[in-house]
Amino acid sequence: MTKFLVSVLVFTIDMLYRDRPYQRFYVLETVARVPYFSFLSVLHLYETLGWWRKADWLKVHFAESWNELHHLLIMEALGGNNSWSDRFLAQSAALVYYWVVVVLYLITPRTAYNFMQMVEEHAHHTYATFLVEHEAEKAQPAPPVAISYYRDGDLYMFDEFQTGTVPESRRPAVDNLYDVFVNIRDDEGEHVKTMVACQQPDAQNTFKSPHTPVIQEAKVVLPSIKDKDVELVTAGH
Question: Domain residues of the chain, as ranges?
């Protein structure tokens, strides 16, 4: 079922937006961020009912939705949402996918994460293909929203969604529009890694936010006292 849903989404977007990349990315980003809303909704429901509380999951999924939001803002800055019909299609599809993923996540979280993994893999492939065909984007300036998100703003949330990367170790260039699309492509790859991690059998016990400190068992080592030191202390006393 998940493969069918993803294939329908991919086929529709590819057919309607073959020659309109910015509009295509706008629709893709509008839909791609919605499953994270679904995850957060169900997790908040579990916490409200007292069944399960995992702050790390909430933090990471919100950071993922925050990342996808900025992808969307970039596409809007490039004019991807100028047409009413594009906005209507994207928002209608997002509404349907929100409830589909909510139900799926309630029944089988691992399948819901697998669904999102496939969506993110498609997004990564789409942006990678675009970069090969559009090196001319190097001559275009980066939108201000991209510069703020990737370089000048508060980068805590940028680090938070990358569960396979040490915080503050990734600081990508954002000198032109081509760099922006490179960064978005790499973001999608990080989302794939996180979705794979969420599907592991022991994920409920091992999955952590990048900023969660690793608490190690403290070991107290008592220094050895030499006989000479004892004699000096005794003599002084």
Answer: 2-236
Comparing 42-46, 132-136, 196-200, which segment has the lowest mean pLDDT?
A: 132-136
Fold (topology level) of 2-236 = Ferritin (1.20.1260)
One-letter identity of residue 85:
S
Q: Which residues contact 2 (CB under 8 A, 6 or more apart)?
A: 104, 111, 114, 115, 118
Query: Measured between alpha carbons, how far is 163 from 218 in angstroms, rounded to an integer?
Result: 25
- pLDDT category at 228 given cuts 50, 70, 90 is very low
Gap between the terminal Cα atoms of the chain = 82
Residues in the chain: 237
pTM: 0.84
If you write DSSP's letter for every residue of 94-131 in order, what string do you get?
A: HHHHHHHHHHHHHH-HHHHHHHHHHHHHHHHHHHHHHH
- The more confidently predicted of residues 205 and 127 is 127
Instruction: Report H helices in the chain.
Output: 2-16, 21-32, 34-48, 55-77, 84-107, 109-133, 144-147, 156-160, 177-198, 203-206, 227-236
Q: What is the mean pLDDT of the chain?
A: 87
